[in-house]
Amino acid sequence: MPMNSASEKIVRAAALVIGDEILSGRTADRNIVEIARMCTDGGIVLHEVRIIGDDMDEIITALNALRHAHDYVFTTGGIGPTHDDITAEAVARAFGVPLEHRQEAADRIAEKFGRKVLTPGGLRMARIPRGADLIDNPVSGAPGFRIGNVFVMAGVPEIMRAMLHGIAPTLAGGTRLESRTVPVGVGESTIATDLAAVQERFPDVSIGSYPLMGKQGVLTEVVLRCGDVNMLENATRAVQQVVDACHERRGITLTSETRTQ
Amino acid sequence: MPMNSASEKIVRAAALVIGDEILSGRTADRNIVEIARMCTDGGIVLHEVRIIGDDMDEIITALNALRHAHDYVFTTGGIGPTHDDITAEAVARAFGVPLEHRQEAADRIAEKFGRKVLTPGGLRMARIPRGADLIDNPVSGAPGFRIGNVFVMAGVPEIMRAMLHGIAPTLAGGTRLESRTVPVGVGESTIATDLAAVQERFPDVSIGSYPLMGKQGVLTEVVLRCGDVNMLENATRAVQQVVDACHERRGITLTSETRTQ
Predict the structure, then answer these.
(1) E strand or H helix at B250, and its extent?
(2) Which of A1, A183, B110, B159 could bridge across to A206 with cysteines, CB 3.0–4.6 Å?
(3) What is the mean pLDDT of the segment spanning B75-79?
C-alpha cells in the first residue's frame, strides 16, 4: 500500500538473489530478511525481490530491469572464486564497463589469506567492474562492490551480513515508516469487517492482518505502518478499540502466555 | 545452467510470494525452500522467484509475466479473510474472469469452523475465480485454487505445506535432475582451476561450488546435477579425483567431524 502524503519521501529498493542452490532447494535463503530489515530500519521501502539462477543473460536482464526502476538494488551471491561465480562479470556487462583486475581487492584477499601470491580463484575474486567502489568484507577478505545504485554482496550469510552492516550508513533513506502491532486473541475472520472499516477511515495507514498459530488455536496480529506518527497513533487506537470490544464480547484476556507459539 | 540434451524434457516453474510482511522484514519467508524442494523432487526446474507486496497492479503484472513464461506458477499469500488479502481478486483480474461466491469453498470453511453462517471474513475466503479448481486445505478449511497453470496457496507455512503436499502428485514433471555432492576439506579457491577444467569436460553437467563454515575454517561442497545418470557419475568421479589429489597434497582426511558446522 503506497503512502503518498506530500511531506513524505519514498526511497525504493529491490533485492536480487543469485544462486542455483536457492532455486534447487539445496539452500534456504537467509539474506532476504536481513536486507528487508535493514531497509525498513533505514527508511527504505523494499519493493521487490527476485531470485534467479547463475545464468549470465538472466542476471543482466533482471539487474537492468531492477536498477532502472529503483533507487537501490542489493544483490547477493555469485562473487566467489569458482567457475560458477559469474555475478561480477554479469554486473560489468549490465553496466557496459570492463571487468578488470583491482589491486586493492587482491591486496585485501592476500592479507586475509596470509599469502603474497594469489591462487587463480583468489585472482578471480579480485576482478571488479571499472568504476566500482569496494565493499569491505571483514570475514573473508574478498570484497563486494558498489557500482551506480547497485550493491553487489556475497551469498554466504555471515559475509553478507557484515557487508550489509558496512553499507547501511551510506544509504540515504526516506521517511521512516513507524509501525505498531496490536495482538488479537481470535482468528482474523472475526475482526475482518471492523478492520476494513478502520482501513477506510485511515487510507494513508497500511493496516496488515497476520494469522499466527497460538496454543489454543489461530490468533492474529494487526500491524499498522505509516510515516506520520500522529496518524499512526490514531489508527492504532481505532484498531485497539475494535479488538478490545471483540475480546470483551468473548471474555478473552490476552496474556503473553496465550500468544506463545 | 540449462541442460539441453535431446532426450530431456525441461518443465519450468516460477514462484510468486505475495506479502508486505516479507518485504518489511517482519516475517522471514519459509515457503520458497519448500516449493523449491517439491519442484526438484518432481523433475520441475524452479526458474525464478519473485516477492512482491499486497498491491493489485503489482500482482496482476507479475502474475501475467510469470504465467506466460513458465509451465507452472505457484503463488503464496494474500488469500485470507481481511481487507489486505487481495490475491484472489488480482488472479481473477489477471485471467479476465469474475471472482464469485463458490458454495463448495464456503461449505469447507463452515465445516472446519463448525458453524453454518459464515462471517464476512469467511465469505471473503469463499470467493474463487470462475473456472478455478479448489486446492484442499486440511489445516484451516479455506481452500486455495488452481486456474490455468497457476496454483494459488496460503502464506501461512503450515497451510502452504499441506496444500503443496496435495498438489504435488498432480504436477507433470520433466526429466528429474539427479545430484551428487562431493565434500572438500579446503576452501573453494584451492580447487577452482581444477573444477573449471572438469566443468569444461562435462558442459551438460551443472557443477556448483558452495562454501560452508567448518570448525577449522572454510570448507566446500561441490554439487553436480544432471538428467543423465551415466554422465553425472563420470563427472562426479572426475571431481572426486581432483578433490582426492588436493586432500593428499595437503594431508587432509575428511571426517564427518571436520564437516560439522
Answers:
(1) helix B229-250
(2) A1
(3) 98
Q: With a cut of 90, say whether residue B202 has pLDDT above it.
A: yes
Give the nearest chain A residue to B198 (CA atoms): A83
Q: Which of A131, A152, A4, A130 is nearest to A66 (CA)?
A: A152
Residue A173 has pLDDT above 90, yes or no: no
CB environment B71-99: b (16+ within 10 A), e (fewer): bbbbbbbbbbbbbbbbbbbbbbbbbebeb
pLDDT at A166 over 70: yes
Measure in Å the smallest separation between the Cα of A95 and chain B Cα atoms.
22
What domains can you pick out in chain B, each with its CATH number? 12-170 (3.40.980.10), 178-259 (3.30.70.600)
* pLDDT value, residue B256: 59
Q: Residues B15-25: what's their mean pLDDT?
A: 97
Q: What CA–CA distance (Å, rounded) separates B170 from B159?
A: 18
- Strand locations in B148-216, DSSP E? 150-153, 178-184, 206-214
A and B: number of Cβ contacts within 8 A: 206
HSE on the CB side for A66, CA within 13 Å? 31
Which of A36, A55, A190 is opposite residue B121, by nearest beta carbon? A190
The answer to whether the beta carbons of residues A131 and A147 sit under 8 Å apart is yes
Which residues lie below 8 Å from residue A114, measured CB to CB, with a gap of 6+?
A: none
- Please give the full DSSP string across A169-187, using - where no structure is assigned: GG----SPPEEEEEEESS-
CA distances from residue B192 to A124, B185, B201 in whole angstroms, order as listed = 9, 13, 15
What is the predicted pLDDT for the residue at B7?
Answer: 60
Contact present, B72 and B171 (Cβ < 8 Å):
yes
Comparing alpha-carbon positions, the chain A residue that sits nearest to B21 is: A208
Distance CA A255, CA B154 (A): 27
- Amino acid identity, position A205: V
CA distance A201 to chain B (A): 13
